[in-house]
């Protein structure tokens, strides 16, 4: 067992700095239903529920939810229990909705999952499956930055103080021997916290020299003349690291395991279909994005963004543990107790039935 994990077992849960700002939108907008999501004749309710409320972001890294919604795969597995959807703009609002009972199951990034789990003393959520890996890049202005060494002294945008990409950039910068004050963003590199929606404008205006951002923002910057200097996947073993997980309210998991299993079955089926039909899946994901937001992504952004994301049932638990350690080293997180953050029992049941190998919780599973 890694020393850091052993240490974690001895520490009480401590107050942590928010990994994402809480000034996000409220409980999200309702996603539109597709005609393919109609309830089949003679279908029965799952666990006696009228509905299961599923949250996700309007983002390609949540492609499992986008495609599963568009194809009606979640509805298919839930039978006469209605699959209801809510679309969020940021992790804290989804965690808030989960904690309040407004959402039952959600697709979310690792930092808000860790933050939500630790701030509740390990009582409000569980990670029950994986969804996506990768899709994060360092994109720079090639007229100002021509090598990794050139990043020193430059202004680099990240989405938010303490969010997943902010932590990743700070950890990478420290690995280069550069000193940066995590809170202010000042140091050998200046970190500019900029919402993904406005970062392309800042890049175009020249107020930042580059950005460490997820897709599709990275590809939007490339479309503005940027150059990919580093793909974060290259920094991880087997080029895999978690970008999106599936979480559930612990109370809902305990009371409605059949409904949770149905959603996981749909997620596994969706990922299998995405990986077998990547081009068609990309089109469907973009159609659902348009249905949710009113605006699809142009091909020059959609194509490279989609190609850099890997859809997987494995939550890649060891990489979430490492990401939390990076946040601790950066001074953005007190040493967390992540014991019990995962419960992969139902996922492994679904995977076994599908003839797939079990996935691992890196020793952080619920007992």
TrEMBL record:
The keyword Metal-binding does not apply. This is Sulfate ABC transporter substrate-binding protein. It comes from the Bacteria. GO terms for cellular component: periplasmic space; plasma membrane. Its main location: membrane. It is found in: Cell inner membrane; Periplasm. Keywords: Cell inner membrane, Cell membrane, Membrane, Signal, Transport. Belongs to the bacterial solute-binding protein SsuA/TauA family. GO terms for molecular function: ATPase-coupled transmembrane transporter activity. Residues 1-23 form the signal peptide. CDD domains: PBP2_NrtA_CpmA_like (cd13553). The keyword Cell membrane applies.
């Amino acid at each position: 067992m890694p020393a850091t994990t052993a240490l974690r077992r001895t520490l009480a849960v401590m107050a942590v700095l928010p990994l994402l700002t809480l000034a996000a939108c409220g409980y999200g907008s309702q996603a539109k239903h597709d005609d393919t999501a109609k309830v089949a004749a003679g279908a029965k309710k799952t666990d006696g529920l009228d509905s299961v409320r599923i949250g996700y972001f309007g983002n390609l890294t949540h492609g499992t939810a986008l495609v599963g919604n568009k194809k009606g795969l979640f509805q298919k597995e839930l039978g006469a229990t209605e699959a209801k959807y809510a679309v969020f703009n940021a992790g804290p609002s989804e965690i808030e909705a989960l904690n309040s009972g407004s959402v039952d199951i959600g697709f979310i990034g690792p930092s808000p999952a860790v933050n939500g789990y630790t701030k509740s003393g390990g009582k409000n959520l569980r990670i029950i499956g994986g969804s996506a890996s990768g899709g994060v890049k360092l994109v720079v202005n090639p007229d100002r930055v021509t090598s990794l060494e050139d990043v020193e002294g430059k202004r680099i945008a990240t989405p938010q103080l303490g969010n997943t990409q902010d932590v990743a950039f700070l950890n990478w910068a420290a690995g280069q021997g550069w000193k940066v004050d995590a809170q202010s963003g000042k140091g050998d590199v200046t970190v500019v916290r900029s919402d993904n929606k406005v970062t392309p404008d800042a890049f175009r205006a020249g107020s930042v020299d580059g950005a460490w951002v997820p897709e599709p923002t990275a590809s939007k910057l490339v479309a503005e003349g940027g150059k990919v200097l580093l793909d974060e996947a290259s920094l991880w073993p087997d080029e895999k690291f978690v970008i999106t997980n599936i979480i559930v309210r612990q109370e809902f998991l305990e009371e409605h395991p059949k409904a949770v299993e149905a959603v996981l079955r749909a997620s596994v089926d969706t990922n299998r279909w995405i990986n077998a039909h990547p081009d068609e899946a990309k089109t469907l994901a973009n159609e659902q994005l348009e249905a949710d937001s009113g605006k699809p992504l142009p091909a020059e952004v959609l194509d490279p963004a989609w190609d850099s994301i890997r859809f997987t049932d494995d939550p890649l638990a060891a990489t979430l543990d490492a990401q939390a350690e990076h946040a601790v080293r950066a001074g953005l997180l007190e040493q967390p107790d992540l014991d019990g953050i995962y419960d992969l029992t139902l996922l492994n049941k679904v995977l076994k039935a599908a003839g797939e190998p079990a996935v691992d919780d890196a020793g952080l599973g619920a007992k």
